[in-house]
Design brief:
mainly alpha; 4 helices
């Protein structure tokens, strides 16, 4: 009876520890579990700040009226910002590596460039 209780306790311990061990994605001795060897939290926070700043610039540029951008231009830019945000959320669910981060950084940079271009083209239409 005693052997049965000890083996049952051992099996229950292993069964409860297995899911916790399977969730860990980092290497022993490193703090890379959530980001799969990718960017650190500061880099990701900077990316989010840049995306938020681009979205604010879109809103400000549209409110400027004749000197700003048209509603159609703003809608296209907002759509692109939303797609970037969705892709960023998808990447965070499974962790983010350097390649994914570089792709998102490139998309945010392009969005910022498009916002600057649309603000200064003075044609009030979408290209």
């Amino acid at each position: 009876m005693r052997k049965f209780l000890i083996s049952a306790a051992l099996v229950s311990t292993v069964l409860t520890a297995a899911p916790a061990m399977a969730q860990y994605q980092g290497r022993p001795g490193t703090a890379q579990g959530w980001n799969r060897g990718g960017p650190d939290r500061g880099q990701v926070n900077n990316l989010l700040q840049d995306l938020n700043r681009a979205e604010r610039q879109i809103d400000v540029a549209q409110r400027r009226g004749r000197d700003g951008i048209s509603p159609r231009e703003a809608a296209g830019l907002r759509r692109e910002a939303q797609q970037i945000r969705l892709r960023l959320n998808q990447a965070f669910r499974g962790g983010i590596n350097n390649r994914e981060f570089a792709e998102l950084r490139l998309r945010v940079n392009r969005l910022e460039q498009r916002v600057r271009f649309e603000r200064h083209d003075r044609d009030n239409r979408r290209h």
